[in-house]
Write a structure and sequence with these properties.
380 residues; alpha/beta; Peroxisomal Thiolase, Chain A, domain 1; 9-stranded mixed sheet; two-stranded antiparallel ribbon; 34% helix; globular
Length: 380
């Protein structure tokens, strides 16, 4: 079996997104699993593979009533779910399972049944950054963002344009948390969180979940699918440095470039073949890195590209069409929602449908550029 014979037959999110104060993190997992299985006429009895991050697959399997013979608890941050899909493809190819579920659920806003995030003081960041006041993503990401602006000539207005472009998509999405259109002036007038990031350039804090159902193309042909299957054409995964201050180059992500190159190579395509793009956007600078590191634009061209509306509705490269982590939802580990949107776009059922894309590229980040993963998805 090659990667192209694995397909996604179910992709669904939790009943509520954004605010779910009465729903625990594990129930967000279970809701998403039930909703995804319902799309392909399967039940938990059919599932023999399970992957989760942060919350143990042992807990989720027991709660959801799944008895897997393939298990993946890889947790390298918000891109973990992209790795899970890639690992699931390999498991299907090896015969380790026949139906695999990748599940996510976080009560990132309400904190209901939400596993704690302990501070790892023996980690590289804990020893060499935290003592100097770097205490979370907004402060950690300022160093690479400022260097990127300086070296590429990207302006603050162009950085703000990322939030503006994604809000244009979110305005068309009934599930998006933030839907009111904004301007560059609105972004720059919003509260300064940590220079150069204003509030509207930072991700949301949300509750929500999502799940994917993977199987073989042969098995999918016998299922009663609500939506067409989506083929996993390729993928990649990579690591960078454990702390931003240890990156080889603050203005480029080694992880983005390596994972992206492997994804393109395994799918046998290049940037020109991509119709739809999702780039993890915990903060507004990440899509700019993604555009350049993946080769969609040249050095220093990402800011002007977004500012010109090329990633907005009607632009040449629809990007983050659900509104992204800045406007749609961000539970803490956003990667699942990026995959969900690409699947919806390829199936032609997205709220903010961007034409009829044939090939979608998903790029995820984990930690502060510590890890990365990429997927290439296509119409079956």
């Amino acid at each position: 079996m090659t990667e192209a014979t694995a397909v996604i037959v179910g992709a669904a999110e939790s009943d509520d997104l954004g605010r779910a104060p009465d729903t625990s993190a594990i129930e967000l997992h279970a809701q998403s699993i039930r909703n995804a299985l319902a799309q392909c006429g399967l039940s938990t009895d059919d599932v023999d593979g399970l992957a989760t991050a942060r919350m143990s697959p042992v807990e989720v399997a027991h709660y959801a009533g799944i008895r897997p013979r393939w298990i993946d608890g890889t947790n390298v941050g918000g891109c973990s779910y992209l790795l899970h899909v890639r690992h699931g493809v390999a498991a299907l190819a090896a015969g380790h399972c026949s139906v695999a579920v990748v599940a996510h659920g976080e009560s990132g806003r309400s904190g209901v049944g939400h596993p704690p995030r302990p501070v790892d003081l023996v980690s590289a960041a804990g020893q060499f950054e935290r003592p100097y006041g770097v205490s979370g993503p907004p402060t950690a990401f300022t160093l690479p963002a400022m260097r990127f602006l300086h070296e590429t000539g990207t302006t603050h207005e162009q950085l703000a344009s990322v939030a503006v472009a994604q809000r244009r998509w979110a305005a068309r999405n009934g599930r998006a948390t933030m839907r009111e259109l904004i301007t560059v002036d609105d972004v720059l007038a919003s509260r300064l969180v940590a220079y150069p990031f204003h509030l509207l350039e930072c991700c949301l804090r949300s509750d929500g979940g999502g799940a994917l159902v993977l199987t073989t193309a042969e098995r999918a042909a016998d299922l009663d699918l609500r939506w067409p299957a989506v083929t996993v054409l390729g993928g990649g995964e990579a690591l960078d440095a454990p702390a931003v201050s240890m990156m080889d180059d603050l203005t480029r992500s080694i992880g983005f470039r390596r994972a992206g190159a492997d994804a393109f190579a395994s799918a046998g395509i290049g940037p020109a073949d991509v119709d739809h793009l999702m780039v993890y956007d915990a903060f507004a600078h990440l899509p700019l890195y993604g555009l350049e590191d993946l080769g969609f634009v040249g050095r220093g061209e990402a800011g002007p590209f977004v500012e010109a509306g090329e990633t907005s509705p009607g632009g040449r490269l629809p990007m983050n069409t659900n509104g992204g982590g800045l406007s749609y939802v961000h539970t803490g580990m956003y990667g699942m929602f990026a995959i969900q949107e690409s699947v919806r776009q390829l199936q032609g059922r997205a709220d903010a449908q961007a034409g009829s894309p044939d090939v979608a590229f998903v790029l995820g980040a984990g930690g502060m550029f510590a890890s990365a993963a990429a997927l290439v998805l296509g119409r079956a």
